[in-house]
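Kindly inspect what follows.
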Amino acid sequence: MRSIPYYGWIVLGVASAAMVGTLPGRTQGLGLVTEPILGDLKIGRVDYAQLNLWATLIGSAGALGVGRFVDRFGSRVVLAFVAAALGITVCLMSRVTSFAELAVAVTLTRALGQSALSVVSIAMVGQWFVRRIDIAMATYSVVLSVGFMIAFPVVGSLVQSRGWRSAWFAVGAAILAGLVPLALFVVRRNPESIGLHPDGATPEPGTQNPAPSTQNLEPHGFTLREAVSTLAFWVFAIGAALYGLVASGIGLFNESILAERGFGPDIYYQTLVVTAMTGLLGNFAGGWLARFVPLNRLMAISLFVLAAGLLALPYVSTVAMAMVWASMMGLGGGLVMVLFFSVWPRVYGRRHLGRIQGVAQAMTVLASAVGPLLLAATVERTGSYAAMFYLLAAAVAVLAGTALLVSLPSARNQLLPQR
């Protein structure tokens, strides 16, 4: 019996910490310092929104480029470099004094945090887990969700008590002091590099050489070109992108959306808690169900839940209905996130995992940049958000139906000995 836990679980913990480290490059993270930045630098809200849009669009390129480096140099080297660059950028951002300097800093945090570091984090888990990827990604989702639930109030408290500059410098310093050493001294390229099998599998009793052969266990899988030529890739990538669009749009204007339905700020904060808790439930459920339910059907279920939530939102009129709506969005989103994390290594293998994951992540980042603009334009032209919710619900429902019909490619990354 193995007395030492599989090292992949330690790597998973570091990967979760890395995803939490993307906070300064995320919309919600920047939201913690938006108001003090506007007041400090005397920047208009519209100008800042345009800055954020272009920073997100340009920064999405970080997701495309970093995947190739992960495949070539390994996650250990790339994580250390990206974390160091992000930490330094965030520290320097705390010293900006002009709109131009802020634009450069926000663009870099988007590229290094929301894009590059996200790809490295997810790819790390995919390199260490194959057959148990569903449970691994569910655990990963829960750990990083708890990490964000701790990090956001801590950083928010620092902003309130010490000012945004001191708080942001502390965030950058924490990334440098925490993630960089973890990358250098804890993370390894893949299980084969230290004589292990993916998932911590052990060879059959009586095997002469229990350590895997590098030649025989070189990671296999689809190339990027092969992956994007399959319909399944686009179903899962667009599904995650649509969720990112919805989550970013509603997340930025949620208080205004609920105010349109007649609710005050107290209900808004309550829905945030409900969404977070049901999102964790979705993470657990997704990891468990993915062991028994085909991923395309599970994606269809999650998208139908999201479509129902979007369709119901314009009719929410009581507190109970608001909480049910928040639960639907949290549950559907939690399921989508686990599937987005799990599908790439499970279906397309590990050989070009970084590149494949990078393209999908870039699509999600681009969609998250567009979401708030779509909702803002809709309410400006029609006086209500409802029309966009109907349109998005229809798009999500159509994709859900497509997911039911699509077939998943045969995985070519089964590296373990046949039992």
Q: What stands out?
A: The first helix runs from residue 7 to 20.
